[in-house]
Amino acid sequence: MKKFVALLFSFALLFSFALLCAFAVPALAADATHLMTHGDDYQDALLVGKILEATDDDILFDVVRTVNGIPAKSPFRLEKGGYFDPRLEFAAGDGILASVQFTPGSKKAGTVAYRALKVELKQDKKIKMDVSDYDAGFLEWYVNTGENDLYSDGGSIYRHNFDGGGGELLFDGELWHVDSLDPKYKAPQARLVPIRSLLSGIPMANVLMPAFAGLAAVEFAVIVILVALLARKKRKMKSA
Description:
By secondary structure, the chain is α+β, with helices and mostly antiparallel strands. The chain has four helices and nine strands; from the N terminus they run H-H-E-E-E-E-E-E-H-E-E-E-H.
């Protein structure tokens, strides 16, 4: 019986840990580029901006446009922390594409939600990116056209063809076959607003820790009840 209880308790702890990880670290459960281009509950906005000032601690930029999410206000101050890549060097006049999480109560400041990348600002509020970055093609196409239903095969990028047959080749790994800077493509502006959860704005730890403690208490109670039932059954068998 002791072995059974130990096994049951171990399973309960593993289940609790898996559940906690599933809610506590959503960024690790999905591709950052997908989350940036589809919007989610962690990213408040995907912004295109022109840098006014860059220091060791933060970047101040004019918001050229909010590609998706909640419209931000200029000038926007982006703190260098979280997922900010320290290898990137920004200067005044540079373009920036930033996935941001707002500072509570403000739409003029925040931190990096997934990525912050250097871009070249083009006409019609569009961007050009360094294609040596694997995800640059996806991001550039989405920011300039609003289309996010793409897929990659062998380093090339395709648009899904829902009429049958293979997809339409957009990028072959070196050259674009379709130009997202073409005026026929209209750059989206705050088209996709993430669905905010009921927990939005509440520090995650304040929600998860009590929930985890409650779950652990329920599991402990279940184990106690099971042990009591097994002990009762054993006494009945002895008395018989």
